[in-house]
């Protein structure tokens, strides 16, 4: 069955949302410089039991890329709450990866009422974003020329060698799925805005004081992007959370071990 695709107006622009399956809602939130495409291998497995909403954040994927939007994590969180409201969702199972995990923290902090459970998958947090000079440099107009080189197939192949334990976990033909949205003319300016607005590390006390929800922390034990020590800090601050390390897995469990990732999420969802 073909997924349903919607464009939903929120503050700042339209979000692209893919909807699969039937049942209670699951919301998948991708990380930085990715899109809903990164979840494609786990979506069918989750959609066998749940209605899965896979969103492209503003500035990413097929969503709008306005040049003057606020691309901070807290602003993304507010827009996703608008999305939840417009779709009329309740009892949401929230899953956030990398920066999407940071955004999920802001979402639960802003309003935990829509959520039944949440899972943080290799979630970033607690680390400074940019030093002032780095922010000034990377948000400059010269980035308009650099971004197309960074988001090339050669750049992608270099990146996955760092992201994954086994680069072969990414099939050769997936580069196009990741890179296609970033050939859009408006993307370089959106990147500059992202750098300008990206917030620093999450305050640990914010995490400690979050409303108590059933929580899963899922990490690759070889993650070189968001190392396990970040997950262990979440674990210390959220002592009620379930914790699982995936052996020989890097930063993207849903690409490297999609079936294992889906099975673990489904087992967690079934406990609620």
From TrEMBL:
Coiled coil: none annotated. Pfam families: Abhydrolase_1. Gene3D superfamilies: alpha/beta hydrolase. SUPFAM superfamilies: alpha/beta-Hydrolases (SSF53474). Residues 25-257 form the AB hydrolase-1 domain. InterPro entries: AB_hydrolase_1, AB_hydrolase_fold. This is AB hydrolase-1 domain-containing protein. It comes from Tumebacillus flagellatus.
